[in-house]
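Notebook entry, structure prediction.
Reason for the run: the old model in the group folder had no record of what sequence produced it. Starting over properly, with the input documented here first.
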Amino acid sequence: MIRRLVVALGLAAATLAPAPMLQAQEAPAAAVVNVEGWERQVAQTGTVFYRCKPGGSCAAGSTVSFRGQAAAPVPTVAVYRERQEGLNRRMVEQSNGRLSAVEIIEVAESTRGTAKVLTAVKALVAVNGPRQFLATSLVADGDRHFSIVSTAATEAASRANVATFLPALLAAPRSATAPPPAPAGQPARPAEPRRTP
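New structure, fully documented this time:
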């Protein structure tokens, strides 16, 4: 349950900035990104989830998800950290007492080819049970923007999962990482606005 909460909140926070409302449109035939050793599922929200297959080369219990985002200005590292801190507070508040804290280990900016990547690595401190680790990245490659969230039992595994998926997603056709269309007759949900504590 904590993992679902983490992934949902991580993707919500991974939006780049408030974006204008988009009108509903027909869904393009999206390309599919498959990664060896991972089982793929697509949620009704358009978020694509991967779970490490038993016996795979990935760390057991790892989960990765990605979602296309509307193109928007990319935040600075300081603004991204501030957003992550706000998300961390909401994660604890919405965990129904399962999390006592979410601690930022690192926030960094890097480039991958022409893409700018902002990544936050965090420790999820459970009230009862072991820590989990989360790595969440915002990726901006021209007008293509998407987020990746990885959860794993170790910090190294959460980082390795993002490192595995990032090149696969960047090499995929743009339709594979496009923001999901809004349901028919409804405007697309804009990026989550920045909240102040």
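Summary: The helical segments are 2-13, 77-93, 155-171.
The old model has been moved to the deprecated folder.
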